[in-house]
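hey
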């Protein structure tokens, strides 16, 4: 289904061509003066320079031609040469009806088949998820859904942090506590236990303890660094411990991500890239890309056009240990080998931009990623508290994600319970749905690259540009549709009529903007575009609702038209919030 601006532009371009002008001047855009018209065409201004004619004379000719077209209610030529356009109710009715008959409400899928690898989440094993992990998960999940909705094959990979000093620290601390474990016996040749020697609670306590010790005890840190190198080089006992750490951590991470409505196709980690590192390093050396610098192995990635210093990409440290650069490059090797994606998108903190510039350039320069493949950095800003600083607990620590979710669930449950319209169980279930919408919409309504203030009071409000307001709008529609059904009427038999009042037409016009909003969100990897759209659509719906006695309408055909319009609006809103990663309850 063609977008409405394309349909209108086609008619205006025909008029330009019929009058002897190049049709390219007939492109139409949304009006920047909605009080005067709905759409506008400024092509006569540019056309006048080419055809040596006053622009208002050209716009007069085009307006005269178009006013006989049933698509338009009016086309007015305004000096010095603008065309102010209003659509006819009959055309709008026909267009929105066709939207309602389409499962994607007019959104077209991409023409070319693409495979996209989406790297998001990025938690470290042995650590609980905290608020710092929120943005990558929420933005990545929405981007994944948008890309799939438009027809891309998307593979989401959590890319676990399981290959750095933290592994050495955990192993060193575990050794100091339980030196008798077989993992630390170099002479042990048997099978290692299948059950981990720790629980998730113990694991989450071991890491911060070890980290604190390493900052105070030089010998302890040296032992941890040695353990890190040994696990990376494949020491059997340490690799067995690494597997235990991964299994225990991933089980807990999956549970927490599920509570957030986030899922991954792959649970790969940095450690999965390890088998590719030796050959990658050898190839870089042999082909002259990598060289020694202060004992480390590096690849130059600076370019002549750089306006700031871009340091070399470090492949190996002086002790031979791998770094993030190493594992990210090796990860690209297995991704290209196993999936051959057309694009790899990284949803990460924007403060890591330099790292990804280095990795992307190195990957292209060394042939790890072919020239025709796309590498994209989608950097997000910081989630801050009301003080403008990174969000913390009242005690000043980093808040665990599950604690944040629990506190917002409780706040929403209290608000919903105040209404006394549902049972305790239903109220709790509804509260979880609304709380998740509050968190996700509160995040996604901001442009990803911008820092934003995480304001729980504002995000959980049922008024303004918030998730609960969007859900309340959907629930309001559902309530009216339920009453219509209870009256014995069938929504499937309802037919849309041409709009009778301004608020009805404004709602129809708002619906026609759905496909452009989704396309824009897809092209720019920008979920906030969908948030802006559904807020506009919700406002249009509520304006129409407050002006219209829907169930009190005596004309059965007109009432059926109202109901059909509401049903299409509900469908668009529910589809849109699914792309953002949340759903609407039946009642609120």
């Amino acid at each position: 289904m063609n977008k409405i601006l394309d349909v209108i532009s086609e008619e205006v371009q025909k008029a330009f061509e019929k009058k002897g002008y190049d049709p390219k001047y007939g492109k139409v855009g949304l009006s920047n003066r909605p009080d005067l018209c709905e759409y506008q065409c400024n092509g006569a201004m540019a056309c006048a320079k080419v055809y040596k004619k006053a622009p208002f004379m050209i716009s007069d000719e085009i307006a005269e031609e178009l006013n006989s077209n049933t698509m338009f209610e009016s086309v007015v030529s305004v000096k010095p040469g603008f065309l102010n356009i209003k659509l006819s109710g009959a055309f709008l009715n026909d267009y929105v009806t066709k939207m309602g008959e389409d499962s994607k409400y007019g959104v077209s899928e991409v023409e070319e088949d693409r495979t996209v690898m989406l790297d998001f989440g990025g938690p470290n094993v042995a650590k609980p998820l905290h608020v710092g992990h929120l943005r990558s998960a929420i933005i990545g999940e929405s981007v994944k859904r948008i890309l799939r909705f438009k027809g891309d094959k998307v593979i989401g990979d959590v890319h676990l942090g399981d290959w750095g000093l933290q592994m050495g620290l955990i192993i060193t601390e575990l050794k100091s506590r339980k030196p008798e474990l077989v993992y630390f016996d170099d002479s042990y040749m048997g099978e290692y236990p299948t059950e981990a020697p720790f629980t998730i609670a113990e694991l989450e306590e071991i890491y911060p303890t070890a980290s604190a010790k390493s900052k105070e005890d030089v010998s302890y840190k040296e032992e941890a660094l040695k353990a890190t190198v040994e696990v990376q080089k494949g020491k059997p006992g340490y690799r067995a411990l690494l597997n235990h750490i991964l299994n225990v951590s991933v089980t807990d991470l999956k549970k927490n991500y599920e509570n957030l409505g986030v899922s991954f196709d792959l649970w790969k980690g940095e450690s999965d890239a390890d088998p590719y590192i030796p050959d990658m390093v050898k190839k870089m050396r042999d082909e002259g890309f990598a060289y020694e610098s202060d004992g480390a192995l590096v690849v130059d990635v600076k370019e002549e056009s750089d306006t700031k210093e871009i340091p070399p990409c470090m492949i190996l440290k002086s002790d031979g240990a791998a770094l993030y650069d190493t594992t990210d490059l090796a990860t690209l090797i297995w991704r290209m080998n196993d999936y051959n994606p057309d694009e790899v998108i990284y949803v990460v903190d924007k403060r890591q931009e330099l790292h990804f510039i280095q990795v992307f350039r190195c990957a292209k320069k060394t042939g790890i990623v072919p020239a025709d493949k796309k590498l994209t950095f989608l950097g997000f800003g910081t989630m801050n508290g009301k003080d403008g600083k990174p969000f913390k607990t009242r005690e000043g620590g980093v808040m665990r994600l599950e604690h944040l979710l629990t506190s917002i669930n409780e706040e929403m449950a209290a608000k919903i319970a105040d209404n006394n319209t549902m049972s305790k169980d239903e109220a709790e279930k509804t509260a979880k749905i609304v709380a998740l919408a509050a968190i996700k919409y509160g995040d996604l309504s901001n442009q990803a690259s911008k820092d934003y203030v995480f304001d729980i009071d504002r995000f959980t409000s049922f008024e303004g540009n918030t998730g609960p307001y969007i859900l309340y709008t959907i629930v309001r529609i559902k309530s009216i549709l339920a009453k219509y059904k209870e009256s014995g009427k069938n929504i499937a038999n309802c037919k849309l009529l041409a709009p009778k009042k301004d608020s009805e037409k404004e709602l129809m016009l708002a619906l026609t903007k759905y496909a452009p909003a989704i396309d824009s969100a897809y092209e720019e990897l920008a979920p906030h575009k969908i948030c802006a759209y559904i807020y506009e659509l919700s406002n249009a719906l509520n304006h129409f609702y407050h002006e219209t006695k829907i169930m009190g309408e005596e004309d059965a055909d007109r009432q059926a038209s109202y109901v059909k319009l509401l049903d299409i609006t509900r469908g668009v809103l529910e589809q849109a919030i699914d792309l953002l990663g949340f759903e609407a309850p039946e009642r609120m």
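Residues 401-580 form a domain with the Isoleucyl-tRNA Synthetase; Domain 1 fold (CATH 1.10.730.10). The mean pLDDT is 94.
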